[in-house]
Description:
- The chain is 29% helix and 18% strand.
- By secondary structure, the protein is of the alpha+beta class.
- It has one domain (19-140).
- It has a 5-stranded mixed beta sheet, with helices on both faces.
Amino acid sequence: MVEVPNFDFREIEKRVGSIFNVALIDCEGCIKHIAATGILDQVHLILLEADRMKVVNYENWYRHLLNRGFANVWMSQDTLDLALAADGATGPGAVHEFSRATQHSAWVRLSSDEGRRGPLEDKCLEHKRRLNYRPHELTCLPLKGNNTRVH
């Protein structure tokens, strides 16, 4: 067994002389461990890969983020499997079950003044329209929550 050193994020902040305000959570179902560090209390943007759906109840985590003042501004399905199929890939390995069961989302912490500006836009749909992506290139999913700004 290899022991890998780890550091509390506050120690890393001290070493680099900066405060983290973004969290990229792509850790194969470890969101509860990330949340336990307290870092979600200070970040303004969370980029989350939701995988291991059989192990982690992400719907509960989405509600948790909404209750903590975050708004969901991006929700998409992983498209690796769709892209391979569009390219004609067949045979063993052509279907990637992990891709079908993986979602990507972005969450923004809302400040009190943002509540007066009206509904949030779905950034995934906006991006897809602007670049004219096809479904196998970008598959947007419905946003979590009511997609309105919090007062």
